[in-house]
Each structure stands twice: as C-alpha cells, then as structure tokens.
Amino acid sequence: MEFVPLEIRWHGRGGYGAKTAALLLAEAVIEFGGFAQASPEFGPERRGAPVQAYTRIAPQPVRRRGAVDRPDVLVLLDARLVSSPGVLDGATDRTHVVVNAPEPVAVPGVPAERVRVLDASGIAGRTLGREIPNVVMLAAVAVAFVGLPPGAFLRWLEERLARELPEDMARRNAEAARLAVEEVLPWLRGGRLLTVGR
User: What are phi and psi for residue 169, nearest 5 degrees?
Assistant: First the structure.
C-alpha cells in the first residue's frame, strides 16, 4: 500500500501507553510495506507524569530524528492535556487532533473540524477492565489517518500482542481496537481518508 509522509506526536501520562502506541504504529506500518520510526521522549519516570512520543511514517526510509515539532496528527491520551504547557506547541490550523474524551473538546488554534474525540478510556474500561487508552487510540490513528486496512490491521495487532500478553488479554485488546475502528469509520469522507497535510 502507499503511505504519505506523516508526523505524529503522542501525549499521555505515565501508565497510559503512549510510548507503546507510537512503537506499535511504526511496527504496523513496516509490516504493511511502509517505512516508519518511533521514539519516546523521556521525562520523569513516574505513573501519571506527562509523557510524549513520536511516530514518523514515509514511503521511503525515514532519516529525520528527534522530536516532532510540527505534527500532522496530535494524539492526546488524556483530554486534560489540552491545557498543559507545550502540548499544543507546533500545532497549526492544518494539524489534526485526536483526543481521548467522551464529548467534544475545544483545542485552541485548531479548527473544530480537525478535532476528533474518541472515548478511548470508556472503550478500554468496558473491554479490558482498565481504562488504559493506548490500543484504542492506536487503532483510531492507524485506520483513520495512516490508512491501514482495518481487518488486516486488527489481525496483525492481535497476533502482535499475543507475543507478549496472555491470549485472553491480547484478544480483549483486539476487541477494544475493533470497537475503536467502528467509531472512527464515520470520520472518513466518502470512503476516503481525511486529507492530512501541513
């Protein structure tokens, strides 16, 4: 499949899985024939502390390293981070923002039509028994913005998670991802992905 250059910045809190989501997205892109790079930015190593990570995607090898300063897609695993210092740095009226929230969220400087909300914590709570939103947000970004084929991506994800998690937990994570995909399919316009660009 064809990939367009895409820079994604993930913001979360310690224990929310932002770094894992960034890495899994890069792995998935590589599995589907693209090029990708993921990197975390380490801050205080404690649960609940702000965390950020980056995923770069391209149709050719990714040479650029370091922080994503001007994200095409900004992923917030906690809606409260909207008002945190630095989180919106580099976001423009061309940036897409995906927020883990049960209802619409205003993001300063970003048009409302470029802000999408997904109740990732709610989906995770119902399927996993824990409100860890990373797999739900990963699935949303992978399908809606990267353009990975939903069925093939979900199969890949379950197989990938089964290498590290007990079978039941891998299956429940895959179910959370499936529910996320169902939620984001209406975001697509006329069967095409939302336009991503600077």
Answer: -70, -40
In three-state secondary structure terms, 166 is coil
Contact (Cβ atoms closer than 8 angstroms) between residue 62 and residue 76: no
Helices 167-184, 150-162: axis angle to 10 degrees equals 160
User: pLDDT tens across 92-137, in order?
Assistant: 989 999 999 999 999 999 999 999 999 999 999 999 999 999 999 9
C-alpha closest to that of 137 among 93, 84, 96: 96
Question: How do 50-58 and 35-41 pair as beta strands?
Answer: antiparallel
pTM of the model: 0.91
Per this entry, what is the length of the chain? 198
Q: Give the domains, in start order, of the chain with CATH numbers.
A: 6-187 (3.40.920.10)
